[in-house]
Amino acid sequence: MNYAAVRYRAIEKISSPILTAMARMNMARAAAVFIGAHMRTEQSAEGAHPVNIVYLPKPGHTEDIMACFKGRERYGILTLDRKLVKAVFAAFLPKTMDDNNYKTADAQANAAKLRLRAFWVRVLKYLQPSLNFHALFTGNFSYASEQELAAACTELGVPFIALHKECMKTPGLRPFYVDVYKTRKIPFQGTAICNYNEMETGIQAEAGVFDPDRIKIVGMPRLSRVHWRREDLVRSGNKADAPTILFFSFNSKAGLPVLGRKIPGSYETLQAGLEKLNVERASDACHHALVNLARENPGIKVIIKTKGDQKARRFMTRLFGENPDFPSNLHLAEGGDLLDMLSQATVAASFNSTTLFEAIALDKPVVVPWFYEITDPALKPYILDMDDAVLYAHSEEEFCSMLKDLALKPHEGGRELSQTSQRLLEKWCGNPDGKTGDRVRQVLDSLLSKSD
């Protein structure tokens, strides 16, 4: 039995409606007890000066938190399921007031936000002493359902920190996101924002979403695990069990302007010049090419890694149908530890994906498609510049031949990274040294010392 899946469905279908009803009836004490019963302790704090953090799990953010605090005995780690936060939100505001639609002049909606904040203040006054937590972490400064929770924490003097994971903003995306941040989002109501890189920090500063003095560049924490694993591979001489291609699935809007909404269709229509940008043909071609490569090369293991959410499942169903006839050496991966997959891969591939930086940090060969719409000059400002740290395939045929050759070719992984790779990891991920966790803990400890 998949306990995690059962728990997910139970919180979604049973616990969340109950919590929403409690919030509607203004039952703060009951809500605090209910939320506390659902929180899990992943690590207990030890030592003379223990610190307990609460984080809101989300792919990417969870790995970042673990890279910062897992195994650090001073820090306890508790999880608060984001669905429960959304359940409280649902008692006060409609779901259409989402991440990209939270800023409003509507007096009724803003009054509801204040009531939501007041409810969270009361819940936290009951919850915080019983669980003895010192700070909360989230993965983005602008998640709508968490805005008033952040404000409530600030009001009570509990640090609420955004370890902001959406930081891969190319030059083309900068004006788009400056406008979105200014016009669609409210200023962050928490205590500090920790970013991966200067690009995201510059956008936030220009948009005025937070006090620049409280925005820190710390780097991508989860990349530290990759640095450590690369060093382990050097010591162990570990090699992949079999020739393995790891492909990170990407859709037609990978790295391009989109505005996700809680509306039918999931996306808001942008102005025509932005709306038409897409890499649909390249995306479709890469996925079909991987299936054909697997079918023609049964000795090569091919893994297609998706995000595993509903959008990703709909995308894969559109490409291959409900019950695709994949060869036995092709595997679709939705969950699992990405680092373990990368460690066993002999080559990785994708387009405009953060995961490629993790492959580079692990010293894996990386192939990037460079054909069809991707070569359109209009897309150039939106493409992650990975320089010569990766190989570029200029046709479907070259894409497959490169992947096949690199999968079968022995590669001495775990070497010292090239200067180009180090420069890219510094520019985009802010973590060429594996010490991002130190910087995050310094931010937290500084905030706690000020609150004492």
TrEMBL record:
It comes from the Bacteria. SUPFAM superfamilies: UDP-Glycosyltransferase/glycogen phosphorylase (SSF53756). This is CDP-Glycerol:Poly(Glycerophosphate) glycerophosphotransferase. The lineage of its organism: Bacteria, Pseudomonadati, Thermodesulfobacteriota, Desulfobacteria, Desulfobacterales.
